[in-house]
Amino acid sequence: MVTRILIDKSPAFSHIELDLYKGFNVISGISGSGKSVFLHAMLSAFGLKESHAALVEVSLTLQLKELGICLEDFGIAEEFDDEIIISVLKKQNARYFINNQAISKKKLSEIANHFIKYISIKDGNELENEYMIHILNSLLIQQDSKFSEILQDYSKTFIEHKQCKIKLQEIEEMQRNIESLKDFAQFEIDKITKVQPQVGEYERLMHDKKLLSKREKVMETCDKALQELDNLDSVHKALELLGIDNTTFLSSIMEARGHIENGLHEFNSLDMDIESLLERISMLADIIRKYGSEEEALKHLAMQQQKLQEYESVEFDKTKLEAQFTQLTQRLESLANILHEKRKECLPKFVEKINYYAKELKLESVGIDQIQTECYQHGIDTLQIHLASKQKSVLSSGEYNRMRLAMLCVAADCNTCNGGVLILDEIDANLSGEESEGVAKLLQFLSKHYQVFAISHQPFMPLLCDKHYLVSKDSENTSVIKPLNKKERIKEVARMISGSKLDQHALSYAEKLLKQQQEG
């Protein structure tokens, strides 16, 4: 529930901070006083309306787990259990915060949709098939606890059936292209196996190519160098005859001879055809250019070999899947028919319940048609609601929203609503006294399940509400809002009955009505 709201520098309110209460909260005041601006500010705090105030802040107490909300899924750390503060700051653009942590308007509205219901225009999902199916299922579970097991079994089978169908479609698509896929895989395998690359081979052969390119020149130079070294014997003999130590000279000559002879041996061992070498390098270069390296080519080879095996086993897999799909289809249809028959039996009770609340709202007879469709996540049933002979698409806004209220009451009666906040903007506008009284009674009933905020111009909601707020203008023509005490409440109800000219008769009548409602 919303426990507090702060509005600063809005088009109507200069600054207000107001404590709010659970149950049925009604807001009244003369036209133009700022009632809708107040509700607009509240809705803007949840990202459901554009913010027009410099600051809007609301404090909430929510059972997050029961509502199916995990703030961490929206990037908000859950630091304060179920205590939440939402702030909207606006300068040029609006910025949104939950517990001082920034959040986008879109994500905030997604969170709010778990617990905020706003009834003003022809929107909402209460008259949609999925919502009505959920209520009908709940009615059936109340009658037969085993129905819940059938629902779970159907949901599980539906998911398995859907997954099996996707796999089968993938195999059929693969089968349509199987020959070309097999040919391509075999082509890739043949290309790599023909070359038979080895890891590091290209680099090694490039080194050999480099050596071969200078082999002739190196060998010619080395032969000449060895001849020159042989001619140095005369130098050795001359030094020896002169009595000069030539040990270092001899050592250097022998070392040089050793290096040259080793080099000649390495080049002499390069016994390969240069054309074969260049052809092998070219083949490896193609492989590396396509796959990145010899290692990646070998990985690709293994992958294509695996794919070829899979392609060859497609027929076997398809036969297996077809048998599984047939079995799942039969089970799904069987469960769907069970759901259909049980819903068919319970539908009159559902219609009876919604007509009970529709009668309170002075609506014509409500009907719900059960139409068979193809299997989907909820079975083979689609529910369509109508008012007398009118489909919901042609209902007036007043009829549409009163039907939504009736459906919410059925949901509350079946314990399928998970609480939250219900906000209504002048839902009793343009209604007769009887119709408005019916709306007030149902909102009083719903306030046992929701925290209700409603704007009203008629006296019936104020007579039944738990908390009555008055919006008015001060001497500076700025809107203010305050909760009314008993005396102020009587005065406001009297104004709503008789108009601006209050007399003792109107006050006495308002007091009498209020007393009757409280005693009733």
TrEMBL record:
One of its GO terms (cellular component) is bacterial nucleoid. GO terms for biological process: DNA recombination; DNA repair; SOS response. It comes from the Bacteria. It holds the Pfam family SMC_N. Keywords: ATP-binding, Coiled coil, DNA damage, DNA repair, Nucleotide-binding. Gene3D superfamilies: P-loop containing nucleotide triphosphate hydrolases. Belongs to the RecN family. May be involved in recombinational repair of damaged DNA. This is DNA repair protein RecN.
